[in-house]
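step=encode ok
step=design start
structure_in=
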């Protein structure tokens, strides 16, 4: 039966794992749509006769479009039915990937990537708020955790699979498969997700009103510090693995990192609603401990493996923690609040990558990956202190 009836906020008193698993599949294809070019970069560059840096730009322009368009488009579409909006966004993802699969023009591919980025900029904050309106408040954290688990699974499982498909059958096949998966998800959404009305924009829930709230600013600060800490070094993880001389190389590092991420997502789903602040403090401390281990014991394989496991544990609930924290600060237009947080998240990725690049170039007194590890450690320590002191902002449900 098609779930077409309009659902009132928090109407469901039970948690449907199937329904939220379906919503998780949306974030799964959302992160894959962004990152697939990074896994098949040489193949795309050779086929399109462009530099590898131009293929890398296809990932950067996607993230930039997400950051720039998130707030204005989420605000503009706030009154649109949530299910209808999700279907429109899925159509955009499908078109973006399928056009890339068959396009021969680099500029058409860039345009398609921008379309995908715009859809992602609206999807990430919208789907989290959509999910919270389907369950009572004490289950909001679990809902967001399960939905955003698609992000972690996309990075740890989906990207290697799509890379294998692209390398084995040609890079265009990866985009075709991804586009078809998006279409299949759209069909399931039509039949199994409930319809939820949009909300009206008001002076109290506008983006400007939201960023004036002290508690929101604290969450945005934590988002900035945490994302710079993680992505500043994650962008250059291959250099870190080379410095540590890890047996098994980048493959083993990503496997251990992925295992830690999955474990932390499972634990987060269980405990985030009752223990949000302890979860955030623990995750940040784990990330800081990982960086400290990399710095203190660069020649120990055992310590390096422990470091990647701790780092994965810290990374898994990254998106979930702060979207949950933001959603608890306001009662209406959670989409707008999470869009602000999402924009800060994406901009922080760019900042972390930019600073890391300057450190590698020796512009800030360093010329190798060690300087980026120190940057990450410093951000983790500051974020841990801020989170520990933010009892009111990171209150339990």
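sequence_out=
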């Amino acid at each position: 039966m098609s779930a077409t009836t309009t659902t009132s906020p928090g109407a469901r008193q039970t948690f449907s794992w199937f329904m939220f698993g379906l919503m998780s599949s949306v974030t799964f294809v959302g992160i894959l749509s962004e990152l697939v070019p990074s896994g098949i970069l040489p193949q795309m560059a050779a086929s399109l006769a462009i530099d590898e840096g131009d293929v890398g730009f296809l990932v950067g322009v996607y993230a930039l479009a997400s950051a720039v368009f998130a707030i204005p488009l989420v605000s503009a579409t706030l009154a649109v039915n949530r299910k209808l909006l999700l279907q429109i966004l899925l159509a955009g993802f499908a078109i973006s990937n399928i056009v890339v699969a068959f396009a021969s023009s680099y500029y058409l591919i860039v345009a398609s990537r921008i379309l995908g980025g715009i859809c992602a900029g609206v999807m990430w904050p919208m789907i989290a708020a959509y999910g919270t309106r389907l369950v009572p408040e004490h289950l909001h954290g679990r809902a967001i955790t399960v939905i955003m688990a698609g992000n972690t699974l996309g990075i740890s499982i989906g990207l290697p699979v799509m890379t294998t498909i692209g390398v084995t059958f040609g890079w265009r096949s990866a985009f075709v498969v991804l586009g078809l998966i998006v279409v299949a998800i759209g069909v399931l959404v039509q039949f199994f997700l409930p319809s939820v009305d949009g909300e009206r924009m008001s002076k109290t829930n506008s983006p400007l009103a939201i960023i004036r709230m002290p508690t929101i600013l604290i969450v945005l600060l934590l988002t900035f510090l945490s994302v710079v800490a993680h992505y500043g070094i994650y962008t250059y993880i291959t250099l870190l693995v080379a410095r540590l001389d890890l047996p098994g190389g980048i493959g083993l590092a990503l496997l251990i990192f992925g295992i830690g991420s999955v474990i932390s997502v499972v634990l987060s789903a269980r405990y985030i609603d009752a223990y949000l602040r302890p979860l955030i403090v623990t995750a940040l401390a784990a990330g800081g401990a990982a960086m400290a281990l990399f710095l203190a014991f660069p020649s120990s394989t055992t310590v390096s493996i422990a470091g990647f496991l701790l780092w994965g544990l810290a990374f898994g609930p990254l998106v979930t923690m702060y979207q949950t924290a933001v959603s608890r600060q306001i009662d209406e237009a959670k989409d707008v609040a999470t869009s602000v947080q999402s924009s800060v998240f994406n901009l922080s990725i760019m900042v972390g990558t930019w600073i890391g690049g300057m450190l590698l170039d020796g512009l800030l007194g360093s010329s190798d990956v060690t300087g980026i590890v120190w940057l990450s450690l410093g951000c983790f320590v500051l974020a841990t202190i801020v989170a520990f002191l933010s009892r009111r902002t990171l209150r339990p449900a």
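step=design ok
step=annotate ok -> The domain at 17-192 is CATH 1.20.1250.20 (Growth Hormone; Chain: A;).
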